[in-house]
Amino acid sequence: MIASLIQVALGGAIGASARYLSNVGVMRLIGPGFPWGTLAVNVLGSFLMGVLLVVLAHKDAMRLAPFLMTGLLGGFTTFSAFSLDVMTLIERGQINLALFYAIGSVLMSLGAMVLAMLVLRGVFQ
Q1: Which of 67, 69, 77, 121 is a Cys-bridge partner for 11, taking CB atoms 3.0 to 4.6 Å apart?
Q2: Segment (H or E) for 48
Q3: pTM for the complete prediction?
């Protein structure tokens, strides 16, 4: 358990640093105005999650999943974990549940942010 936790923590630090550098790099390349860096990181992270899922399973190397999938990609973008969750439900044949999860996650997450902003703006005014 401790070894897995260390792997996740190390991978997370590397992934978060890579996300930060990617966002800065894309912003410098394209400029502000649209979150291109976040979009790029989300798409790339989801692609890499699919690659790792298949390769690690094929090579019988799932022992590397805590570092690579949860840590590195989780730190790079949690959207990759979201994408994996949706695809897992779809592959299990739980299409309706996958749709509920995907739509519900987006709507409830946005709703939670709006609620927090409204409440705290009221507190700080």
Answers
A1: 67
A2: helix 36-58
A3: 0.82
